[in-house]
Amino acid sequence: MMYDWVTDKSYVLNYTAPAFLLAAAIIVLALLGTRFFCGWLCPFGALNDYISQAGHKILGKNYELPQGIDARLRYFKYFVLFFILVSKILIGSCILTSFDPWVAFANLPGLPGTYKEIPFAFLVLLLVIIGAFFIKRFFCRYLCPLGALQGILVGTGLVQLKRSGTIITCHNCRSCSLNCPVNIKPGDQEVVDSAECIHCLRCVGGSCSMGLPSYELNFIKKRLKTYPYVLAAITIFWSIFVGIGFNGALGVTDSAGAGIMPRNFYHDGTYYGTGVGFAPGLKVQVEVADGRIKKIDVVEHYETSGYYEEAFIKITDGIIKSQSTEVDAISGATYTCIGLVEAVDNALEKAKP
Q1: Distance between CA atoms of residues 89 and 102, nearest Å
Q2: pTM over cut 0.90
Q3: Of 150-159, 177-186, 210-219, 338-347, where does the model show the most confidence?
Q4: Are 104 and 121 in contact (CB under 8 A)?
Q5: pLDDT score for 233
Q6: CA 160 to CA 181: how far, in whole Å?
Q7: Of these four, 168, 179, 308, 310, which has the most CB atoms within 10 Å of its CB?
Q8: Domain final position from 99, 129, 153
Q9: Pairing label, strands 292-300, 222-224
Q10: Separation CA 308–CA 282 (nearest Å)
């Protein structure tokens, strides 16, 4: 979506604006040197935490891979990120969507029907759950491409965790290292500046079991208190995600009135467009003849079975009959309808003179 916005001048944000703004907010925080989203706001990270806690209660502990294997596996998420970017550039879509545990997670309410649509995504989700049961933040450490992107951007080092005292004063209780969900062993370091740090702040403040000075937050070498830091990060995040969106500062256009399709307005041909429905990756093929829409086919999607069928039929028929994308959504399939309309609009933008 963000790639399309940058490279395709005809791309219109419309219904993808929330996802675009979410990505922008995460990137801005990462450029400021903090993976605050990972440690405080990510729902998939929270899922990993809950499953790991359940594993700890049942097994009595969480496990760790040998240090050498763990270090190598952490690079795998960067490979996933690279593969996503390359596939998007070369073929215009990401083939990993059908394996995306996020998509499966979003489609859990639609089980068992949704399993038939995206079986591999659910299998990957199951593997992530099993991995998190044994290893804390399994997905975040080894598989998350969003974490990899943030890991690259936080290299600015503007925000650091620095020990209040010195390692000499540390009694080596390792409580801060044992509490670290991504196992970067902060107890062994004067300054924690690893790209793997998710800034959960479990090692900050009075977390030391021996009552010794723990870590403190530094922004451009100036000390920050925990609560102002959290408040500032949340303010920045929501200002971008909500504030900019409502004010239209990114040029997000209102679809009202924009969906009317005048006769003979478009060049004849076959055009493809993408949209985000209940899940990303909704792709349509629109055929235009004599300047009018003649046919709309959904060529790829990951929508929930039992919801999308009626929407695909009624929305496409409605657009063709009215020659307008201003059609009413189908009750119970609102997001699918929105994504379908967005995909058609995206295709028709390319058909304009």
Answers
A1: 22
A2: no
A3: 338-347
A4: yes
A5: 92
A6: 17
A7: 308
A8: 153
A9: unpaired
A10: 11
